């Protein structure tokens, strides 16, 4: 029953894509997956990790918005800049990091056997691919931004570091899952799918950081050449999604939910004692 409810709400989350309705549906779907994982003794830790993951998704419902006033002396030509607060992104990243930490412990506690090392090597290699993409994207974002300079990437890393470590932990889950039995392939697939979704969200946050710092720099410098333009880097509304659909947003939501569902399924299959 919980799995069917999760599937139903997951479809709603993917259809809404990247707005708050999607976050609410996705959080509810992950909660249903957590109750499904709790059915197995081996899935109790994994269920706890999924509950934290649901909290990370739900935190997007309360992301604040910062209002940056126009530069002094702009007069009527000045506009008010509406930008998403990076504090909300940090909160989501920290919750995501906590969720992945618990998931690593959960997968490590699943029954394991000594087998060929090649599945472990393959899982490690596949897990490195999204991390390389993330590193390249962050380096490009730091190089293209006006502030900070490429020689000082720390302000960017402060924002994305929790999700970057969470992506690394997804790869760790895949490697540890390669030693588990049964359901090893399901564990690996779930961890890698979730890693792809985390890396995609990490790059989105990095792009948001770039826009926020650009706006702040323009305001500090007087930015007269963009005073007639408004800037908004918040999540699109449902009306925006209907007028200008973005299939990538729906695919990323679906990837995160599929990864979570595969991990829950693997936990139940590991010890089918209930």
UniProtKB/TrEMBL annotation:
<feature type="transmembrane region" description="Helical">
    <location>
        <begin position="120"/>
        <end position="139"/>
    </location>
</feature>
<keyword id="KW-0472">Membrane</keyword>
<feature type="transmembrane region" description="Helical">
    <location>
        <begin position="159"/>
        <end position="179"/>
    </location>
</feature>
<feature type="transmembrane region" description="Helical">
    <location>
        <begin position="20"/>
        <end position="38"/>
    </location>
</feature>
<feature type="transmembrane region" description="Helical">
    <location>
        <begin position="186"/>
        <end position="206"/>
    </location>
</feature>
<keyword id="KW-0812">Transmembrane</keyword>
<feature type="transmembrane region" description="Helical">
    <location>
        <begin position="45"/>
        <end position="62"/>
    </location>
</feature>
<keyword id="KW-1133">Transmembrane helix</keyword>
<feature type="transmembrane region" description="Helical">
    <location>
        <begin position="249"/>
        <end position="271"/>
    </location>
</feature>
<feature type="transmembrane region" description="Helical">
    <location>
        <begin position="91"/>
        <end position="108"/>
    </location>
</feature>
<protein>
    <submittedName>
        <fullName>Uncharacterized protein</fullName>
    </submittedName>
</protein>
């Amino acid at each position: 029953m919980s799995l069917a409810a999760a599937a139903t709400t997951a479809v709603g989350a993917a259809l809404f894509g990247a707005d708050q309705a999607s976050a609410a549906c996705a959080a509810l779907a992950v909660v249903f997956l957590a109750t499904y994982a709790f059915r197995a003794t081996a899935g109790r830790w994994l269920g706890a990790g999924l509950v934290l993951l649901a909290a990370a998704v739900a935190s997007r419902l309360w992301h604040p918005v910062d209002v940056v006033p126009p530069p002094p002396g702009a007069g009527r030509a000045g506009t008010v800049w509406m930008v998403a607060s990076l504090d909300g992104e940090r909160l989501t990243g920290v919750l995501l990091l906590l969720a992945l930490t618990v998931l690593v412990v959960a997968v490590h506690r699943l029954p394991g056997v000594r087998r060929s090392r090649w599945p472990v090597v393959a899982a490690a290699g596949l897990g490195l691919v999204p991390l390389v993409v993330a590193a390249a994207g962050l380096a490009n974002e730091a190089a293209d931004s006006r502030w900070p300079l490429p020689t000082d990437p720390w302000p960017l890393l402060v924002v994305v570091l929790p999700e970057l470590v969470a992506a690394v932990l997804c790869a760790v889950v895949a490697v540890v899952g390669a030693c588990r039995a049964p359901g090893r392939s399901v564990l690996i697939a779930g961890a890698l799918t979730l890693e792809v979704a985390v890396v995609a969200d990490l790059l989105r946050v990095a792009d948001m950081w770039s826009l926020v710092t650009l706006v702040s720099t323009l305001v500090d410098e007087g930015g007269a050449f963009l005073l007639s333009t408004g800037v908004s880097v918040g999540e699109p509304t449902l009306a925006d999604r209907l007028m200008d659909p973005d299939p990538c947003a729906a695919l990323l939501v679906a990837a995160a939910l599929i990864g979570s569902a595969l991990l829950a399924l693997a936990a139940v299959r590991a010890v089918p004692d209930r």
